[in-house]
Amino acid sequence: MKYRRLGKTELNVSVIGLGTWQFGGEWGQQFGQHEVDAILDKGQELGINLIDTAECYGDHLSESFIGNYISRRKREDWIIATKFGHHFHERFTRTDVFGAKEVIQQLDASLKALNTEYIDLYQFHSGPDAVFDNDELWSTLDKQIAAGKIRHLGTSIGSNDNLHQTDASTEVNSQVIQVVYNRLDRVPENRVFPSCERQDLGVLARVPLASGYLSGKYKPGAHFDNTDVRHRHDPESTRLKLQEVEKIKRDEVPEGVNMAQWALAWCLRHPAVSAVIPGCKNPAQVESNASAAELVAER
């Protein structure tokens, strides 16, 4: 495993992290504690130290699985990132909750679910600019840092071209940007990444395998049933993406190199990117993702 400094947080994160949206049950598989333990144990074995989750991956369900695991392990071995701003109702249904008072309630619920006294990185979760530009919210969060409940703040931008929230990061004490970035979606390179580099912000690239389309497992015409969030994607857009993936595999991926590993390493080649946070459904996928570090140049 290789490690990089997460911007001005000075946290030293593994370049491959563990994305955990899937633990909430919206990616075609229901998880139990045993499955989660096996995934996290494999990650630790391979040198991964970064877990990314959220309050709305299930109703704190993903966090609860992680917290149960952490209660039986060393907390200091992990850098835990979670998010705030949404209330989960049922599969694929959420409402926004960004008021300062409500966010503190979410924070306390996340701390309880994660079975921890502090969160390493607490991220504003894909909210609109109108609620981002709320001084009361950020001053309230700064008080939680002073109280020791949060170590660092970050922003998970909903649009991967949201320059407004990125540019305002230093002003609101947000030190990390999480953004969709992958070989099929390079939009952050134009404006967001230069802003991050100017401000010394850490960057977490989410969806680095383009919702699995860059895993190399799916061909044009692939079908996803209604238990999988991908069934909500526009069918024509999915078909075109998978056609492009076939072309990328043919023209860009070196012979004998696993496409998923190549796609993760591709994201990490950009100087702004600190780490990628791919999802994984089993220990074998964790191992495959972790091996992408072998393709990453040292900095």
From TrEMBL:
The keyword Nucleotide-binding does not apply. Keywords: Oxidoreductase. Residues 16-295 form the NADP-dependent oxidoreductase domain. Pfam families: Aldo_ket_red. CDD domains: AKR_AKR11C1. InterPro entries: AKR_Detox_Biosynth (IPR050523), NAD(P)_OxRdtase_dom_sf (IPR036812), NADP_OxRdtase_dom (IPR023210). GO terms for molecular function: oxidoreductase activity. It comes from the Bacteria. This is Aldo/keto reductase.
